[in-house]
User: Fold these one by one.
Assistant:
Number 1:
Amino acid sequence: MGFYLLSLSQLLSSILFLCHFQTTISSSNDSSPSHSCAHDQSLSLLQFKASFSINSSASGYCQHPKTESWKEGTDCCLWDGVTCELKTGVVTELNLACSLLYGTLHPNSTLFSLRHLRKLDLSDNHFMSSHISPQFGQFSNLTYLNLSLSVFAGQVPSEFSLLSKLVSLDLSENNNPSLEPISFDKLAQNLTQLRELRLSGVDMSLVAPDSLMNLSSSLSSLKLYSC
Ligand SMILES: *[C@@H]1O[C@H](CO)[C@@H](O)[C@H](O)[C@H]1NC(C)=O
Ligand SMILES: *[C@@H]1O[C@H](CO)[C@@H](O)[C@H](O)[C@H]1NC(C)=O
Ligand SMILES: *[C@@H]1O[C@H](CO)[C@@H](O)[C@H](O)[C@H]1NC(C)=O
Ligand SMILES: *[C@@H]1O[C@H](CO)[C@@H](O)[C@H](O)[C@H]1NC(C)=O
Ligand SMILES: *[C@@H]1O[C@H](CO)[C@@H](O)[C@H](O)[C@H]1NC(C)=O
Ligand SMILES: *[C@@H]1O[C@H](CO)[C@@H](O)[C@H](O)[C@H]1NC(C)=O
Ligand SMILES: *[C@@H]1O[C@H](CO)[C@@H](O)[C@H](O)[C@H]1NC(C)=O
């Protein structure tokens, strides 16, 4: 068993090395030098990081304080949880699930200047009953948004209906946020790509069950436990 594990890990590291080697070669021949993080993106991420503390009881299901690897002067595209578009150096994915983030997510957060995001996962952190900001509606290219298990509260903003490319939306298990009928209807009308919708624990008591019929015909998974 030990032998197999060893050779498997050696094989993996050789493959990783080869991939790295190839990337280095092909990028060294590229005329555009900007394969690394765009400066404004790096700044936004660092300010976002600075607005939270790391609290070991902030994440319940797993613990991975990703922002600790975020250091000024290094390429943000290599930071834990950050994925960039190689050509432009803009951040397209941010996965901060279980990152032990503790603090309020204000509408003026620099998170919202990362306009090119396609995937955003802030699940399993502690945002201290922050209201879910209307600013989330600015992420026009977002296909995946996960805000579950993160102590968000307040109304789900009607601006969520602007996220017309969303394929997956998870707002479950927060501090009893509510979804008003008007917001739900706009969302159901405009989020036509939606395949996965999880709203467990969201107060939808005013939403008429009938209006669920207007949800995307692409929908393949719907979780409404305790709504
Ligand atoms: C490197 O760039 C040169 C000049 O643009 C080009 O002729 C050559 O094919 C490139 N080599 C590789 C391996 O991409
Ligand atoms: C850490 O989070 C818990 C709640 O999960 C809170 O009670 C505690 O005060 C926090 N500690 C610090 C140092 O902020
Ligand atoms: C963001 O808004 C909060 C709450 O209104 C405020 O306390 C904080 O100073 C603001 N931060 C910046 C950078 O403007
Ligand atoms: C959204 O995606 C389209 C198509 O890929 C792209 O042209 C556009 O620049 C993107 N917008 C933002 C804000 O990233
Ligand atoms: C959202 O995040 C939670 C916790 O990290 C995870 O269990 C869940 O599967 C995610 N939801 C989706 C739709 O991916
Ligand atoms: C629906 O989404 C589009 C963007 O694709 C946006 O322009 C429009 O305002 C949205 N409508 C509503 C009701 O939010
Ligand atoms: C579905 O949407 C249409 C168009 O907005 C609306 O007229 C209708 O009442 C909605 N149906 C339900 C069951 O909510």
Note: The mean pLDDT is 89.
Number 2:
Amino acid sequence: MKIEKVKKSNIPNIDFDNLNFGSVFTDHMFTCSFKKGKWVNPEIKPYQPILISPSARVFHYGQACFEGMKAFKDQNDKVWLFRPKENHDRIIKSSKRLAMPEIPEEIFMEALNVLLNLDKDWIKTGMGNSLYIRPFIFADQASLNATEANEYKFMIICAPADTYYSGEVRVKIEKSFSRASKGGVGYAKAAGNYAAQFYPTILARDEGFQQIIWTDSANHQYIEEAGTMNLFFRIGDTLLTAPISDSILDGITRKSLIEIAKKEGIKIEIRPIKVTEIIEAQKCGNLKEIFGSGTAVVVMPIIGFGYENMKYDLPKVENSFSTILKKKLNDIQYNISDDPFGWRVEA
Ligand SMILES: *Cc1c(COP(=O)(O)O)cnc(C)c1O
């Protein structure tokens, strides 16, 4: 791998107390090209704009997918990744669905390790601080031919992150728009899945909701996910989450929380969740919590939701499942507790 280091780090110019999530990047980035059926020219160089043809297929036909992962620093300045192999497995799944080539695990992992080693001073210690890592693949072949490309770029960029503060989050249970359909690309971390959500989300925002709970595209009867987060519902003392499917993204945070909940003796059911069931539980006071899960937010409590022109508020609960699960997960990620699951990987 070719490595070109920055002459001077940009760290002194960064206000680490006021990081706007995903808008400040570390000194270095990784790039690798796919040409003539092979991944070639792996390279780490200073973070900088890239040159790309206006006819690059990604702009026209949207062949692009990505990953989101984090690195954490413990009190002894050791850097840890959280389940990185899961991210690699998933980018392979996403790439396959979008007819893009598979990035080999060796390239993915080596790039991460070299990059983290170069940019480790960007990771601050302390709960809430981390490095958000964004690997992505896109078609950079210059051609308007509407078929799959045969040239791609794989890149990794990194952004220092502090606690993700989203304010109070209310969500709208969507009844007309859909995020993903059966047989579609909902399970892939495809760039286009996000583009399709912005417009309905703007409309929801005008009604006072920050995010949407997507329901099944056929009948809008079953809860799917929040589009950047998987969802958990607590009814009484039972935690519910929908099973993954081809229209729900297989979140690594989600599956980790499921394992932790089981270990903590929290009753958890993974099964289709009807919207009417949530409304009924709310009406009789049994709906205690709703929260989202994802790498960026870890766990995001939701304080209220809307459905069919009605707005509902959730109660404040002591010892919420979301708080318990978030702490257990963070303690593993930051090397504060043991890691009985073997999820932590030293970078
Ligand atoms: C990335 C993502 C999530 C969360 O996945 P994690 O692996 O937990 O970060 C959930 N839903 C969608 C649509 C996503 O793209």
Note: The chain has seven helices and 18 strands.
